[in-house]
Design goal:
By secondary structure, this protein is an alpha/beta fold. The chain contains 18 helices and 21 strands.
């Protein structure tokens, strides 16, 4: 069930913080310029990103629920108006307009947990230009962060090959909101839970953890510390064994406590050891043998210590016997790739006839030339395998018949073509309405449900898309109609 008390309204940080002024100054100065020029045409803006994080083959969509909440709560109160007045750059008639401001437009979005690719719209805003301009910064702030962390989590979980991954990064996150919403995104990406208790409360996700070295150091000896912890948490008894010496002290003392628990009739479930230092491959193999020889073959071996997808992959290749992974700093900060790179670009302006006139941004950099028009996105699947063949960006209103042959081509290298035989593929439209006329029309699933969605989404990728080094890319193509429109605009502007 959806956690109505927290993620919708209630105590979600998004609903208690005042985020109206979470915007760049130029959004406000442009708004005033539009206001003064009586210019408030209905427009289309696309939010998208240009390249996958960490040179990967995909990304994960996350943050939509917080975007919707932000739109619902968007109001200028007296304090906001007073502050803007104090800047002495805004006129009173514009401030009076802001006092009654409400978002009245439409928003379409790709649902959270969906696998996504560069250049396709993740969020499409259709609204009067003043409204569409104001929401740019907050939308990008929310989506860029959560997509980044969800993607990193998906990569870490892929490296773990089905082992449980726990998000442990709160203390190293860039502030409370980053730690909390980062935990949400990490669970969406595949983590089985988080150490962040606030995130657990807000999003109804599992909270996980063991104990610190200080617990052991506070007792006269390691054995006593383990014994007392086992008394308190017999059904979640994971003992940290590297405070003094993992093999000579920690594991023998853990085995002693496990033996006493078993002999006294305590059910042996959810128990094991955790290592936070040393050569994890070598130690885990030694520890596994010690536990097995003592009669504890089902004891979990958990590890932490600056882990990421590359180190976990390496440890797996070395035969490490670790079955549970606590990943902190490198996950919650996406340390190797700390920015998602999402952008927000004008794509069309509505004329007096209600038609959207396409707009395009040119650039010396080819990858920065935008796709014009009021668009949607279709995902094309191989009918036999269920795997993704390509994504297709097209104009709203275009129709396709999966029983007919479909010709696809690379819009940057159009001589690269392929034909999908009719009946060999299926299609799904990715962008769905979430705000209509300023009102929510979409209820987000609970976070754990989004996690399940994401798990199924990742299964639609080919193994070649998931590898960390030189992954095969999923092509994002343009429909022939959109491609021709784009080229016509380019030709017009080059005359």
């Amino acid at each position: 069930m959806r956690n109505l008390g927290f993620e919708r309204g209630g105590r979600d940080i998004m609903s208690t913080l005042k985020l109206t002024l979470l915007t760049d100054l130029y959004e406000m100065t442009m708004m005033q310029g539009y206001f003064k020029n009586n210019k408030n045409d209905r427009v289309v803006f696309d939010a998208f990103y240009r390249s996958n994080p960490s040179d990967g083959g995909y990304a994960i969509c996350a943050g939509l629920e917080q975007v919707i909440t932000y739109i619902e709560e968007l109001r200028f109160d007296d304090e906001d108006i007073a502050y803007l007045r104090s800047l002495k750059i805004f006129d009173e008639d514009f401030l009076a307009y802001l006092r009654d401001f409400r978002f009245s437009g439409d928003i379409y979005a790709i649902p959270e947990g969906t696998v996504i690719f560069p250049r396709e719209p993740l969020i499409k805003v259709v609204a009067p230009i003043m409204e569409a301009q104001l929401v740019e910064t907050a939308i990008l702030n929310i989506v860029n962060h959560q997509c980044l962390i969800a993607t990193k989590a998906a990569r870490v979980c892929y490296a773990a090959q089905g082992d449980g991954v726990m998000e442990f990064g709160l203390r190293r996150a860039q502030g409370p909101d980053s730690g909390t919403y980062g935990a949400r995104a990490a669970v969406i990406g595949g983590c089985k839970g988080t150490s962040n208790v606030l995130a657990g409360q807000m999003f109804d996700v599992p909270v996980l953890g063991t104990h610190a070295h200080s617990w052991i150091m506070s007792f006269p000896d390691e054995y006593t510390a383990f014994k007392e912890y086992a008394k308190l948490y017999p059904n979640a008894c994971t003992l940290l064994v590297d405070t003094y010496d993992t093999l000579k002290s920690g594991v023998p003392n853990a085995i002693r406590v496990f033996t006493e628990m078993r002999d006294s009739g305590v059910p042996m479930k959810n128990y094991g050891i955790r290592m936070d230092s040393g050569d994890l491959a070598y130690l885990s193999k030694k520890v596994r043998k010690m536990l097995d020889d003592a009669g504890f073959p089902d004891a979990i071996i958990s590890a932490s210590n600056d882990l990421d997808e590359y180190l976990i992959e390496s440890l797996k290749l070395q035969g490490a016997t670790i079955t549970s992974w606590g990943v902190g700093t490198n996950l919650i900060t996406s340390k190797d790739c700390p920015a998602f790179g999402g952008v927000y670009k004008l794509a069309a302006i509505e004329n007096d006839k209600g038609e959207f006139i396409p707009k395009i941004k040119l650039s010396e950099n080819t990858e920065k030339v935008t796709n014009p028009g009021n668009k949607t996105v279709y995902r094309i699947y191989d009918k036999e395998t269920g795997k993704i063949r390509a994504d297709l960006i097209c104009l709203v209103g275009e129709t396709f018949d999966p029983e007919q042959d479909m010709k696809l081509f690379d819009p940057n290298e159009p001589w690269k073509k392929t034909t999908l035989p009719g009946g060999s593929y299926t299609m799904r439209e990715l962008l769905i309405p979430v705000i209509k006329g300023g009102k929510r029309v979409y209820d987000s699933p609970a976070v754990m449900e989004i996690r399940d969605i994401c798990t199924k989404e990742k299964e639609t990728l080919w193994d070649e898309n998931k590898r960390f080094v030189n992954p095969s890319k999923v092509y994002v193509d343009l429909s022939k109609k959109l491609y021709d429109m784009k080229n016509d605009l380019l030709n017009q502007m080059s005359m």
